[in-house]
TrEMBL record, chain A:
Transmembrane segments: 7-26, 46-67, 88-107, 113-132
Organism of this sequence: Glycocaulis abyssi
Protein name stated in the entry: Uncharacterized protein
Highest taxon of source: Bacteria
Keyword annotations: Membrane, Transmembrane, Transmembrane helix
UniProtKB/TrEMBL annotation, chain B:
Organism: Glycocaulis abyssi
The organism's place on the tree of life at top rank: Bacteria
Family matches, as PANTHER family: DNA-BIDING PHAGE PROTEIN, TRACRIPTIONAL REGULATORY PROTEIN-RELATED-RELATED
Record bears the keyword Nucleotidyltransferase: no
InterPro entries, A to Z: Cro/C1-type_HTH, Lambda_DNA-bd_dom_sf
Pfam families per record: HTH_3
Name used for this protein in its record: Helix-turn-helix transcriptional regulator
Keywords annotated in UniProt: DNA-binding
């Protein structure tokens, strides 16, 4: 398994764990009768999520580079081709999510849900991109 | 570069054998790609660019058409 493939799988797992936990909490607000928290109160936890994500990815990169320094080379043409295809296909998820957020906006939904719809869209498109990459590395 | 098996066949495995059982890692270093890319090419899961194809052929000292061919 190449360095870039390992990095991709690590990204997928980290995204799923970090944001899976976050959106689980958000889903709790969706099913409860209480009104959602104010949007201002959300920035702190979103910032923590992003910092945690970056810290985990940096930690993974450092560990992987220390244990296999030769593998951590520049991506070659196959890596770049896989990246371009994954990027193009995950763009569909991003597009659908943005339309969904716009519909919520025009339906006068609370900003809390619109912000989370956009956040969810970004995370879902990143996860879709990682899944596309993982499939491409295995299948061709 | 598409998905699944490509229609570009190659004799890389055979050429490596004739080159003193050159390893995939040695070929990858000589061509400037990762070992996984060499594996994918050998298994017919990846069609290299023309430039990489020429570099592979040059490593074996063979013309391009002896290493790569297009299947009908």
């Amino acid at each position: 398994m190449s360095f870039h493939e390992k990095t991709n799988l690590a990204m997928l797992v980290i995204l799923a764990i970090v944001f899976g936990g976050y959106f689980y909490t958000v889903a709790g607000h969706l099913i409860s009768d209480a009104p959602p928290p104010a949007l201002d109160a959300v920035w702190g936890s979103l910032l923590r999520m992003v910092l945690l994500l970056v810290a985990l990815m940096v930690a993974f990169h450092i560990t992987a580079t220390v244990f296999a320094p030769k593998d951590s080379e520049q991506p070659d043409e196959r890596d770049r081709s896989i990246e371009i295809r994954a990027e193009a296909r995950s763009g569909v998820v991003l597009g659908i999510g943005i339309v969904w957020a716009l519909i919520l906006l025009f339906a006068d939904i609370e900003p809390y849900w619109i912000a989370h719809a956009l956040m969810f869209t970004l995370v879902a498109s990143e996860i879709a991109k990682s899944v596309m990459r993982a499939i491409a590395y295995r299948v061709g | 570069m598409g998905k699944g098996k490509t229609r570009i066949a190659n004799t890389i495995r055979e050429q490596r054998f004739h080159a003193g059982e050159m390893t995939q890692a040695e070929l990858a270093d000589a061509v400037g790609v990762t070992r996984q890319t060499v594996i994918a090419m050998e298994q017919g899961r990846y069609s290299p660019s023309l430039e990489v194809a020429f570099r592979v052929a040059r490593v074996f000292g063979k013309p391009l058409e002896e290493v790569f061919s297009y299947e009908d």
